[in-house]
Write a structure and sequence with these properties.
Zn_M74/Hedgehog-like, alpha+beta, globular, about 15% strand, six-stranded mixed β-sheet, M15 family peptidase, about 35% helix
Amino acid sequence: MHPTHICFLQTRLAGMGLYTGAIDGLRGPLTDMASRRALSRLGHPLPQGWAIWPGYRHAAAALQVMARQAGFDPGPVDGHWGLRTLQAVNALIDSTEEDRPDPPVTPHRWPSEGDVPAFYGPHGTPEGARPPLVQVPTPWLFRIAWDLSQTRRFLWAHEKTAASVTRILSRIHHHYGAARIHDLRLDIFSGDYAPRLMRGSRTRWSMHAWGIAYDFDDTENRLHWGADRARLARPDYRPFWEIWEAEGWVSLGRTQDRDWMHVQAAHLD
């Protein structure tokens, strides 16, 4: 459960008169207590023994009930945060504009490339040092570009971008749907966190070394291809890029007509 989901839950609980704390995306005792009370009030059948669950399960179960009552299927109301619950709660948030809280990381405020170390901290290194990374579950199954028989259900993200990545993937999935994502090859993943230098540089570290960049379908969007050749430059992909850009991410294809596979949470110097 990411801060965006907790902010949404806190907003809903406050609207029910059960929560009086800050809408800060941090699940603490006030959120847990309000979630437990909400489960009693919402009227959905609950498993035996639910009252003695730990706080995180009460919070997850409250969101599961809210999603189910809004017509989204989170699976069983069991307080366990899995992919099915993630997708249902993301759909609930996207369908309820008036309840959507301001995101913990404000869009359009990512640093310039030169300020990346000051904003994100140290980059990863091949020797094993790593930035603070989070596994963001993905609403659709990714295929690995260099071996399409391999698949992934998550992306690595720097902890400062994780909530943004979660929102972005949810909105892409909501816009296109799984079948269209597959048809457009948006399910082909070519890279996230990688502790390496920029291509062609001996001194500058890649944005991938901080876990703040993603590459998609590099076989049909090669590094030096322009919009005349890159698949991701076609009109069908415009919503895909606009969803990233709405959160302040930068497409090198859309800004420089190169490297159309790549998007990053840092502005160009």
